[in-house]
Amino acid sequence: xxxxxxxxxxxxxxxxxGIGAGIARRLAVEGAIPVIIGxxxxxxxxxxxxxxxxxxxxxxxxxxxxxxxxxxxxVIAAVEQFGRIDGLVNNAGINDGVSLEGGDTExxxxxxxxxxxxxxxxxxxALPWLRQSRGAIVNIGSKVAETGQGSxxxxxxxxxxxxxxxxxxxxxxxxxxxxxxxxIVAECWTPMYEHWLATQPDPLAKRHEIERRVPLEQRMxxxxxxxDMVAFLLSIRxxxxxxxxxxxxxxxxxxxxxxx
Length: 260
Ligand SMILES: NC(=O)c1ccc[n+]([C@@H]2O[C@H](COP(=O)([O-])OP(=O)(O)OC[C@H]3O[C@@H](n4cnc5c(N)ncnc54)[C@H](O)[C@@H]3O)[C@@H](O)[C@H]2O)c1
What we know:
Blueprint: E1 9-13, H1 18-29, E2 33-38, H2 41-53, E3 59-62, H3 68-82, E4 87-90, H4 105-133, E5 136-142, H5 144-147, H6 153-174, E6 179-185, H7 191-197, H8 203-212, H9 223-234, E7 245-247
Parallel strand pairs: 1-2, 1-4, 2-3, 4-5, 5-6, 6-7
Helix pairs in contact: 1-9, 3-4, 4-6
This protein binds nicotinamide-adenine-dinucleotide (NAD).
């Protein structure tokens, strides 16, 4: 399938690690130009260098996304480098465990800034360019919005917000030919996941326990599997798909528990 993404400039927030890095690499293989927006230049450039070494093109913009002005500067910097924006992948975030019983309002609001507000900010600042290109937006989300997790109120709320914004923007931006979809992740092996697992008393046993709960093949989703769906949703091949929450999760959220 030819995704026809060649020369498409796509902003990827949190594109230096994990799911975002997988997306950036996949887009580059398709001939697109991912622009990695992340907080550390050395991390961004590590992925850019890998892509360039394989004959692709990519850009890097350093930004702390909890800062709205930094989001605006990031979009401007990307346009200065590449002259256009064809797609936005909102991906950066962290499951930071701000709970109802142990957290407070300031922590809750900080977590929303880490996980939700920059989705809105990047979309807002990129919108004039997406209108010109009739581009596409993909929001990465978490199963936690639908299943809960316990002890992570703010992250759950942020992910509920990501899902709601996907539907809301699909309607608001449909008149410009801009499609908006979400890819919902359950258990995907990334640095964030590894970091969390390391906090568990027996990380390997915990990993096996989690994997057993995934209906399809009792394993975690890979970043490449998420990236394949994102590339499809950014491409012309999904030209009549908008407002969808697509679960790339091995059946984790929707299939009967009996399947595990
Ligand atoms: N890994 C999973 O199983 C899983 C499950 C559900 C949802 N998700 C979602 O996927 C997204 C990516 O997760 P991941 O596991 O790849 O994470 P990760 O920590 O492995 O990578 C995220 C990258 O984003 C960057 N980043 C995060 N916040 C930032 C900020 N405020 N400013 C600039 N850069 C920032 C980090 O530095 C890192 O480079 C998150 O939004 C998360 O909610 C992941």
